[in-house]
Specification:
The chain has 286 residues and is of the alpha+beta class. The protein contains 8 helices and 19 strands. The chain has helices spanning 22-25, 111-114, 140-144, 157-167, 191-196, 203-212, 233-242, 253-257; strands at 10-12, 15-16, 33-35, 54-59, 76-80, 88-90, 97-99, 102-104, 115-116, 119-120, 131-139, 154-155, 175-180, 200-201, 214-219, 246-248, 262-267, 277-279, 283-285. It has a 9-stranded mixed beta sheet with strand order 3-19-17-11-13-15-16-6-18. The protein has a two-stranded antiparallel ribbon with strand order 1-2. Strands 4-5 form a two-stranded antiparallel sheet. It is globular.
């Protein structure tokens, strides 16, 4: 297959088979690696409709006496969570759209044919390839001259264009586009605020990103789009109509502080059969 991202075959919505191309390698100048994951711990904000995060010891070191021979000891734990917990990526099957009496996934797959008691057969997260592509960070608050966006601020296409201009970057085909709102400030401090009225892109802005060539998007909030959003129009547009996966609850603060706006991004979803999302630990390399 060609190394040109514009011409590789699409295998999962707008995602192509991953390739670490010479073009991507040439972007890495310092080799600095940035973690984009929020820490998973009890009490993190989890959006309504998803299971809360729980973790507890399973075996403590002194409990392991007699399991191993000799002086060695070990510990392990039990973790319970939904896959829409903390930093995660939405699979295309996370949302559907009703047309008449039927609901449809991306590509016209009917929910009736694809969903059963074991999960979802089409566009589930185990079918999503690893993502290795050029990423760009849009620091919207900085472009607008503020530290953090106002509650329920709707990021427009004009805001994104202004941000591109001020940062000297251009969204082009095959990119991962990350939008910073500053709402990470409220993570584990004002969870209700974080989950109920965060800033985010509006439908017009999402359409602009896709038209410019974004193949995956992400943000530092729980739903990527502005809240409240009763109909979740942006999710429907991206996941169902365009085949663009969404990353949520990213930690973009270090990238923003160091003004790292272009980088190679690597995302590896878990192979969870029939599941609608995956917890992830994305990294950015510049």
């Amino acid at each position: 297959m060609t190394g040109n991202l514009e011409h590789t075959a699409k295998i999962y919505g707008k995602l192509s088979f991953p390739q670490f191309t010479p073009q991507l390698i040439s972007m890495i100048r310092t080799g600095r690696v940035y973690s984009l994951q929020q820490v998973l711990e009890p009490g993190i904000p989890v959006f309504e409709g998803h299971a809360p995060f729980k973790i507890m010891p399973h075996i403590r070191h002194f409990d392991s006496d007699g399991i191993l021979e000799g002086s060695g000891g070990f510990a392990s734990e039990l973790t319970m969570m939904g896959q829409h917990t903390g930093t995660h990526i939405d699979a295309l099957c996370h949302f559907s759209k009703r047309v008449g009496d039927e609901r449809y996934f991306f590509g016209g797959q009917t929910v009736s044919d694809a969903e059963n008691h074991e999960g979802i057969l089409k566009w589930s997260v185990e079918q999503m390839p690893p993502i290795i592509t050029k990423g760009v960070l849009l620091d919207i608050p900085k472009a607008l001259g503020v530290d953090i966006l106002e509650d329920s601020y709707a990021i427009t296409a004009e805001d994104i264009k202004l941000c591109e201009e001020k940062q000297g970057i251009h969204i082009t085909n095959g990119m991962c586009v990350l939008t910073r709102t500053g709402f990470s400030k409220y993570w584990m401090k004002e969870n209700k605020r974080f989950l109920s009225r965060h800033a985010g892109v509006n439908l017009q802005a999402a359409q602009y990103l896709v038209e410019k060539g974004a193949i995956v998007v992400g943000g530092d909030t729980s739903t990527f789009e502005v809240l409240p959003s009763p109909k979740h129009d942006v999710h429907i547009y991206l996941l169902v109509e365009q085949g663009v996966p969404i990353m949520e609850c990213l930690n973009l603060e270090q990238l923003a502080q160091e003004q790292v706006y272009e980088f190679v991004i690597i995302v590896t979803p878990l192979k969870l059969k029939g599941v609608t999302a995956s917890v992830i630990h994305p990294i950015a390399i510049c």
